[in-house]
Design brief:
Length: 357
């Protein structure tokens, strides 16, 4: 799978440059410490540079390069990675908590304005195309579709509601809860659920197969579906919020909904449940194998390709120690998905607003 995770959080005119306290204040640095500090300062400078470059291009209405978010993403990864290596070498550099809820060992809260600018740039780069078909109720749509699909798959009401909550988490994980967005790091994955053309087609085929059952159980939802299908006719269905969510769920997640009763027993934390389903997006084959193994949390992956996909989605991506990993259990993978926590917390809060009564 290609890159899926979008910006997590956003330097237009930030002029400060963070460095370690003067050597005289903390004693002479070792060679390792000095190298780590130098690497971090270079990464920070490069991050500022690419942020400023993209901002200048956008403000001047200049053409952007292909995949304009990729250099931004890699520069951000380098800053977080090099800071983790710095704090490993100099634990005294671990500072205060930050508003993005990134572990302080990985992130200096003083550079929050840079991440704010990062997010603002991605908002511009990934803005929906002209003609994208929004929904007035995007969050409720996700929940309603997931619940209807789960019920059609035979789930009891409580577990169907869990499917709705989990799916709302996927919407936040993929796009921060934004409709019909493009992808600054990929020319393949697009829309509210970030699907590729083949995934979209596969999801539509699966939906057509289940639609008669949906129609019988929920005529109102079926009528809404007919309306959105007609509205999207002749366009890229990935830029109609309803059809993209519907087809994305049917493509990747609908069959896994059947496993929810067992999943909630193994993973009682709703955020862990969301993380597992996000792994269906990122590394579907090993995740399905882990679910079938009977020992989900201890199931290990060691394929270099799978580890690469995880790193490309901000899992084991930061610092030399994490990047040196050649294998991981699903327990370790879920724990390493801390960059998703804030997104899933937002999804939980939104779900509480629209939770079926």
């Amino acid at each position: 799978m290609g890159p899926r995770c979008l910006a997590i959080a956003a330097f237009a005119a930030v002029a400060f440059f963070v460095t370690a306290p003067a050597v005289g204040q903390q004693g002479a640095l070792t060679t390792t410490q000095s190298e780590a500090l130098g690497t971090y300062n270079r990464a920070l400078g490069e991050f500022k540079s690419i942020l400023a470059e993209r901002r200048k291009q956008i403000d001047a209405s200049q053409p952007l390069p292909n995949l304009p978010g990729q250099a931004l993403y890699l520069a951000r990864v380098a800053v977080i990675s090099s800071y983790k290596d710095l704090t490993d070498a100099m634990p005294s550099r671990i500072g205060r908590p930050n508003k993005f809820e990134i572990p302080p060992a990985y992130f200096d809260a003083d550079i929050e304005p840079l991440i704010d600018e990062y997010s603002k740039l991605f908002d511009i780069i990934e803005a929906p195309p002209a003609g994208a078909q929004d929904s007035a109720t995007p969050f409720k749509d996700v929940v309603d579709l997931a619940v209807a699909i789960a019920r059609a798959k035979g789930l009891a009401p409580a577990h169907a509601e869990a499917a709705g909550r989990i799916s709302l988490g996927l919407f936040f994980a993929e796009t921060n809860g934004k409709q019909n967005v493009r992808n600054g790091r990929s020319n393949t994955y697009m829309g509210s659920f970030q699907t590729g053309p083949s995934e979209d087609r596969n999801g539509r085929r699966k939906w057509e197969a289940i639609k008669p059952e949906i129609a019988a159980a929920d005529p109102e939802l079926n009528a809404r579906d007919d309306k959105e299908e007609a509205r999207a006719r002749g366009t890229d269905h990935r830029f109609n919020h309803w059809t993209n969510v519907r087809d994305g769920l049917m493509n990747a997640h609908a069959d896994v909904f059947r496993e929810i009763p067992g999943i909630v027993k193994t993973l009682p934390d709703p955020i862990d449940q969301m993380k597992l389903f996000e792994l269906i997006q990122i590394v579907p084959t090993p995740t399905r194998s882990a679910l079938k193994s009977g020992d989900l949390l201890n199931y290990r992956v060691s394929s270099p390709t799978i580890m690469k996909h995880l790193r490309n989605n901000s899992i084991f991506a930061f610092g030399q120690a994490d990047r040196a990993r050649t294998s991981a259990s699903f327990r370790e993978i879920l724990a390493a998905m801390w960059l998703f926590n804030r997104k899933f917390e937002k999804a939980m809060a939104k779900y509480a607003e629209i939770k079926p009564r």
